Structures are given as structure tokens and as C-alpha cells.
């Protein structure tokens, strides 16, 4: 870790908000609608409750070892023979997640903005720009996230207000036609969707106030979920469940309803999708920074930042491997179980072992 890399609690808050909001949020409504139908609007509030529990365990584990990252404290808790495979798995998870985010973002850009531009050019441009920011270090990345969030989020929320006249409450009825269990199961499983919260497994030593990691993580997650719930609820209220299931990009379809000739900005949907694509940039940069840092730790490299570029060939290969949009979800099927493991199961096990092996001072 470079000694000058330190960020405050507020910077960590903006970093996690910017990292968690990406283009996948616009398409997530379709997946939820396929699984629970009209009860889609109930999933995200329950998901928030379950995920906050997982985030609490994860941050408590990291805060118990405030001067160490995941590789360091997992080695101290369970030994090097456990720490190495766990850290390699986390590194692969972040690289695969980077590939998934960039692939989805590339597909959205090509389908909505740059239809004639080769997908490889879009993908490579996004990766190189994000790797450059990641290679500058954590502080510049956090400052960029502050600017991006302050500029884009208010505009996105204003654009969503323009579709409120199309909102229909009957699109939320009937309530729980198949009972509560499908909704509860999906909400619990969607803990894995808080992927970027895994950054706190290495982020705590970089904080000026490591004991405020839970505060930054929980507040950042709540802000993100307010935005997610707003997007998903608006998509359901405006489009209805049946249209949602067939919409390629539900969020874009919703904003297109606010367009009509003579308005100040006639192509509101393109402005909306452009703002959302900007939000995908810090997600990719943060994941490249985290994977470069962890790779540097594993090979005992002090100045790890250029590793952000060396990872790009693998990320590019993983991103381009699915042949078409329909194959993307099936190719990245492993991300959800891996995310569930690194966000809940592994932190819970390590935290339990840490409590037993390293009890608080003064306890018997």
C-alpha cells in the first residue's frame, strides 16, 4: 500500500455509491420481473434489509483488523494455505465482474448510441480510460467519483420525474399472488448483487478513520438502494410487468415515454442513457484498482498501480467471450454464487473464527 493513499469517510461514501451504480441497474428490472412477476416492487426493500446484515458482518470483520487487507487478516485468522486460495478467488471475482460490467455497458452503448461502431472499439476504449484512472491511485479515483455523482445523479432523478404522468398504480396488483416465499428467496439471494461492497475487504486500511467503515458502507448502500428502488418501481409502474419482461433496457424504455416533439431536449432517453453510462466508468475503474492492489499484495509488489493495465487482456477476453447478448447471463452465471460467498458466507466464517481466536481485550 502506498503511504500517501488515504481517503476520508465521505470520500469512501462517494466511492462506493459511484462503484455500485452501473448500467446493470437499468436491465435488472427485467430479470426480477421474470422471477417474481407483479411482486417485483417488494424485492428491493427486502433485499436492502438482508444486504445490510451482510455488509455489517463484512465491515465488522475488516474493522477488527484495521491495518490489514483481506489477504493479511485472512492469513492471520486461518493461515496462509487458506488465505491464498481465498484471495485468488476474490481477485478472479473482481476481474470477472469487471468484464461483466464492461460487456453490459458496451452492449447498451452499441444498442442505444453507437450502432455502427464495432463493439471491440467501445469495450477497449472504456477499459483503457478506466485503467488510466485506476492507475492514478485511490485518491484521484475517489475525487473523480465525487464529481461524477454530484453531476449525474440529480439529473438522472429529474429525468425520471418526467415520466410520472405515465405511472399506473394498478400495475402493482395483485399483491403476493404466489405467496411471500418466492419474494423472500429472491431478496435473500440478491445479497450477491451488492458486488462492489466487497471492496471494503481491502478498503479499510486506506481510510483515515477505519472505525467509520460501517458508516460509509451502510450510508452508501442505502443511497444506492433508494436509486435502485426508484428505477425499478418506476419501470413497473410505467411499463407494467408484461412489457418489462420483453424490454431490452427497461430504464431506457421508460424515459422514451417522456419524449415528444417541441420539448427543450427531444431525445431525453439518449441524455438519460449517456448519464448512466458515465456512472459505469467509476465502477470499472474501482474494480480495476482493487484487483491491481490485491494482485500486487499477492506478489509482494509495493507500487501495484500499473497492474491495472496488465489485467486488461484477461478482462477483454472474458468480456468478449459471450457470442451475443443472450449468452452473457449464462456465461457469467458464477458471479452470483461467488458474490454471495464473498459478501456473506466467507466473511461470516472468518469473523466467527476471529472472535474465537482473538477475543476483545478484557473478555474471559
Automatic annotation (TrEMBL):
One GO biological process term: spore germination
Keywords: Germination, Membrane, Transmembrane, Transmembrane helix, Transport
Phosphoprotein found in the keyword field: no
Compartments, record wording: Membrane
GO annotation, cellular component aspect: membrane
UniProt cross-references to Gene3D superfamilies, sorted A to Z: Amino acid/polyamine transporter I
Transmembrane residue ranges: 41-61, 81-101, 113-134, 146-167, 220-248, 268-290, 302-319, 339-358
Keyword Phosphoprotein: no
Classification via Pfam families: Spore_permease (PF03845)
Principal location: membrane
Mode of membrane association: Multi-pass membrane protein
Family per record: Belongs to the amino acid-polyamine-organocation (APC) superfamily. Spore germination protein (SGP) (TC 2.A.3.9) family.
NCBIfam families given in the database record: 2A0309
The protein, known as: Spore germination protein YndE
Protein source organism: Moorella mulderi DSM 14980
Lineage summary: Bacteria, Bacillati, Bacillota, Clostridia, Neomoorellales
